[in-house]
């Protein structure tokens, strides 16, 4: 496992941190722990608990739905964008497979993006700069002026 942290965010370098995870179930709690640890020094005003919940959902989706014939990883990055916090989760899956579902009450799966949609101020899915898919969410007013 690897991680990087940018200790001095600024307009030219808004990334606050990143982690690279193996596509295994154990990476989900690891992502939660690392995010909590590495976002804490920046003291955001948004709910860290909500962010950790959404990261859990997106990393789980990345591990379950990522596909590649080659060895691959899940990448998680977090950025300061003006006063907002943006979190991105990358995997080698197909961007067109990411969709908001509306499962029946008895369905065991399919609620992850519904949760992200209800908690985040906005979210987006599309092609990743690493190839594959990126799903991101934004928490507005994480650092009020």
Can you give a write-up of this model?
GO terms for molecular function: ATP binding; protein serine/threonine kinase activity. InterPro entries: Anti-sigma-factor_SerPK (IPR050267), HATPase_C_sf (IPR036890), HATPase_dom (IPR003594). The chain is α+β, with helices and mostly antiparallel strands. It has one domain (2-139): Histidine kinase-like ATPase, C-terminal domain (Heat Shock Protein 90). The chain has helices spanning 27-39, 48-65, 112-119; strands at 2-5, 15-21, 74-81, 84-91, 122-127, 133-139. It has a 6-stranded antiparallel beta sheet with strand order 1-2-3-4-6-5, with helices on one face. The longest helix is centred in the middle third of the chain and has 18 residues, at 48-65. The radius of gyration is 15 Å and the shape is globular. It starts with a strand and ends in a 6-residue tail after the last strand. The relative contact order is 0.19. The mean pLDDT is 87.
Identify the overall geometry.
globular
Strand content: 25-35%
CATH class: Alpha Beta
Radius of gyration: 15 Å
CATH superfamily: Histidine kinase-like ATPase, C-terminal domain
Proper CATH architecture: 2-Layer Sandwich
Low-confidence stretches: none
Indicate the structural class: alpha+beta
Mean pLDDT: 87
Task: Describe the structure in brief.
Residues 25-138 form the Histidine kinase/HSP90-like ATPase domain. This protein is an alpha+beta fold.
Furnish the topology, listing elements before pairings.
Blueprint: E1 2-5, E2 15-21, H1 27-39, H2 48-65, E3 74-81, E4 84-91, H3 112-119, E5 122-127, E6 133-139
Antiparallel strand pairs: 1-2, 2-3, 3-4, 4-6, 5-6
Helix pairs in contact: 1-2, 2-3
InterPro entries: Anti-sigma-factor_SerPK, HATPase_C_sf, HATPase_dom
Protein name: ATP-binding protein
Domain Histidine kinase/HSP90-like ATPase: 25-138
């Amino acid at each position: 496992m690897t991680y990087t942290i940018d200790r001095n965010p600024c307009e030219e370098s808004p990334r606050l941190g990143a982690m690279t995870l193996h596509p295994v179930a154990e990476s989900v709690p690891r992502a939660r722990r690392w995010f909590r640890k590495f976002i804490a020094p920046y003291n955001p005003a948004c709910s860290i608990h909500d962010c950790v919940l959404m990261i859990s959902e997106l990393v789980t989706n990345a591990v379950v739905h990522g596909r590649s014939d080659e060895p691959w990883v899940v990448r998680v990055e977090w950025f300061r964008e003006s006063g907002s916090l943006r979190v991105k989760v990358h995997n080698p899956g197909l961007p067109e497979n990411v969709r908001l579902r509306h499962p029946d009450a008895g369905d065991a799966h399919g609620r992850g993006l519904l949760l992200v949609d209800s908690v985040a101020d906005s979210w987006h899915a599309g092609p990743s700069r690493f190839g594959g898919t990126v799903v991101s969410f934004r928490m507005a007013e994480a650092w009020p002026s």
